[in-house]
Design goal:
2 strands, two-stranded antiparallel sheet, about 50% helix, mainly alpha, about 140 residues, 6 helices, flat
Length: about 140
């Protein structure tokens, strides 16, 4: 059964290529994309690339940081100062602010998405998926 592909020794399955060569071949196979920031087309060098260049990525990140700063205080107050949040209707204000951001995207950025996909953001924060399980009560001896 030496000709059977299911019985090929693992050492014969290894590819002898550098990571750079693999990325180059992969980049050639990736379809062209549109930069999330400037809207220009580009050929991605990495599978998850969403920007044509570093300045576009930085501009996008700076906008997210500014908008995030606007939302941070409102969100924290809505989570930890419930009376004030209810009085000021902070949840409604945060939604209105998000709608304002989206309208700005449509007006200035031709409607391109101005946020990272939740999966991309959450992938770096595995601790958010952990559930706290209280330790079992010890029984006396």
């Amino acid at each position: 059964m030496s000709g059977d592909p299911a019985h090929v020794p693992p050492e014969r399955l290894r590819l002898d290529v550098s990571d750079e060569a693999m990325l180059t071949r992969l980049a050639k196979a990736l379809p062209a994309r549109t930069c999330l920031e400037c809207g220009d087309g580009f050929s991605p060098q990495r599978p998850h690339a969403e920007f044509c260049c570093a300045p576009c990525r930085k501009t996008f990140a700076n906008r997210r940081a500014q908008r995030g700063a606007d939302l941070y205080d409102l969100f924290m107050a809505s989570r930890f100062d419930l009376a004030t949040a209810k009085d000021l209707k902070l949840w409604r204000m945060m939604n209105r602010l998000a709608s304002h951001f989206r309208a700005e995207d449509k007006r200035i950025r031709e409607g391109r998405r101005s946020w990272m996909r939740p999966g991309d953001s959450l992938a770096a924060k595995a601790f958010l998926f952990a559930e706290h399980i209280a330790p079992a009560k010890r029984r006396g001896r």
